[in-house]
Design a protein that fits this description.
CATH class of the largest domain: Alpha Beta
Oligomer: single chain
Number of strands: 14
Structural class: alpha/beta
Shape: elongated
CATH topology of the largest domain: Rossmann fold
Helix content: 40-55%
CATH superfamily of the largest domain: Glycogen Phosphorylase B
Number of domains: 3
Length: 494
């Protein structure tokens, strides 16, 4: 049966690289319509009836209730259920940041359930297929291909004679152990070619001593929307790039996606000498392969010194990508695989030992998850005890402050009473002062009146004295003077 519509279920808020490479880009090229099964966080089961196949990715099963609803509806309507996987999450190495953070640990049982329960599983590489085959016999390889509608092949940029070469690393924080693998070689490059090279890390901070180097810059992730990411990369210029991977089962199951993207960007690169890169790249022709720190230094140095080699590698890599790795040439593979998947979960032929081994790997990660939870709980208990002690200290301080507040309040009340009494006394004194002022004003007026009288009497006295003098000196006073004496004597005698 030709597949025309697929019901796709994911809780991803954007179309990231995962959704673009594994669903939207290939299905468009395969002529298959994608019906979105989750909108605004709500699962839509109605689209299953009008779809020919139900598709979901690893994270959807972590929402176990929604996942179960979709499975039950698909089974009821006899629709094939397909799980798409691009990583072997059961084989995460111990130093992988997601395992250290126990990011996937709690969801591994639901992922295993989905692997066992799916009618078909599509994976990115042969190595991943071999890992999944132990749990489900219906596995198909659908590799990652470059979407030529987004990526345009760019030529190798030409740097000026005095312009330093830019070495690019592009990846997320999950690649910290991979970068640590080459940090010694990169640091050696910065010392050997001081001023002649610079490093640009996109998405992850530089490791170790590199972070302190002035020639090293870091650009955090600006978007998880894949179309926007491709647009941003179109403005990025670099002369060469690196793509290290640690040698472990998890990385062996990855795809050579960085090779496709670096090649489209016109950037020659050095890659780890492990699958997936060693399966795709011809060393020295369309890329460089390295394993040891010494080899990493030598291969990077070759690209730094030889501009013609850089251009030739880009030319060869782009020719290979255009010939073998463009989505437009492979969209039909999805149609072909989907047509083979039937709505019957074939799990009867499972190897019991393989299943137990898978469960063992899950239990190990769950144990790590539980240990981390216990450490977190113990840390929280310690913090809680410390906070309770601090709370007791603060409570005692609060009680002391409250006692001081009561004492201060009493003092304030007493002072207010004293103030009120002082104000009353002040009002009384002011009244007395006003009364005294009135008396002083009266006395002052009386004094002024007395002074006027005294002045007037003085003037009268002075006038009288003048008159007396005048009279005494007059002729009549002299004539009558004997008579006044006789008269005075007669008054005494009489």
């Amino acid at each position: 049966m030709v597949i025309k519509k697929v019901a796709f279920y994911t809780f991803s808020p954007t179309i990231s690289a995962l959704e673009h490479y594994r669903v939207y880009s290939p299905l468009v090229h395969a002529g298959i319509e994608v019906l979105e099964g989750v909108k605004q966080g709500q699962t839509n089961l109605a689209i299953i009836s009008e779809s020919d196949l139900v598709l979901f990715q690893r994270d959807f099963a972590n929402h176990f209730e929604a996942y179960q609803d979709v499975i039950q509806e698909a089974r009821k309507l006899n629709k094939p259920v397909v799980l798409d996987l691009d990583d072997d999450l059961l084989s995460l190495p111990r130093d992988h940041p997601d395992r250290v953070a126990t990011y996937y640990a709690s969801g591994l049982p639901s992922i295993l359930h989905a692997i066992l329960n799916a009618d078909g599983i599509t994976v990115t590489t042969k190595a991943l297929k071999q890992s999944v085959l132990k749990m489900n016999p219906n596995v198909w390889v659908l590799p990652n291909y470059l979407d030529e509608s987004l990526w345009q092949m760019r030529s190798q940029p030409k740097s000026g004679p005095n312009q330093p070469l830019t070495i690019l690393y592009m990846g997320t924080t999950t690649h910290r152990p991979d970068l640590q693998l080459v940090s010694e070689a990169l640091l050696r490059i910065t010392k050997t070619y001081r001023g002649a090279v610079r490093f640009l890390f996109y998405g992850i901070e530089p490791p170790g001593e590199l972070a302190k180097n002035a020639a090293v810059s870091y650009q955090p992730v600006l978007t998880y929307d894949y179309k926007n990411f491709v647009s941003l990369m179109g403005h990025l210029r670099a002369d060469l790039a690196i793509a290290p991977l640690c040698d472990n089962d998890f990385n062996h199951s990855k795809s050579a996606l960085k090779y496709l993207e670096y090649s489209a960007m016109g950037i020659p690169a050095v890659y780890s000498r492990i699958s997936p890169y060693s399966d795709v790249i011809e060393d020295g022709s369309d890329g460089m392969l390295a394993a040891t720190p010494e080899e990493w230094f030598e291969k990077i140095e070759l690209l730094i010194r030889d501009a013609n080699l850089r251009q030739q590698i880009v030319k060869n890599a782009q020719a290979k990508v255009q010939q073998r790795w463009l989505m437009r040439e492979h969209g039909a593979e999805w149609q072909s695989v989907y047509e083979q998947i039937k709505p019957t979960a074939a799990s009867s032929s499972l190897d019991r030992a393989s299943l137990l081994h898978s469960l063992w790997k899950i239990v190990i990660q769950l144990e790590e998850f539980r240990a981390k939870q216990e450490r977190t709980i113990n840390e929280l208990n310690d913090k809680s005890a410390a906070l309770m002690h601090q709370l007791g200290v603060v409570k005692a301080q609060k009680e002391a402050f409250e006692a001081q507040d009561r004492q201060i309040s009493a003092q304030v009340a007493s002072l207010m009473e004293q103030k009120e009494a002082s104000v009353a006394q002040l009002d009384q004194l002011n009244a007395q002062l006003n009364q005294l002022g009135a008396q002083v004003a009266t006395l002052k007026a009386q004094k002024e009146a007395s002074d006027a009288q005294v002045k007037q009497l003085g003037a009268t006295l002075e006038q009288t004295q003048l008159e007396v003098v005048d009279y005494a000196l007059s002729t009549s006073w002299k004539i009558t003077r004997p008579l006044r004496k006789i008269s005075k004597k007669l008054r005494r005698d009489g």
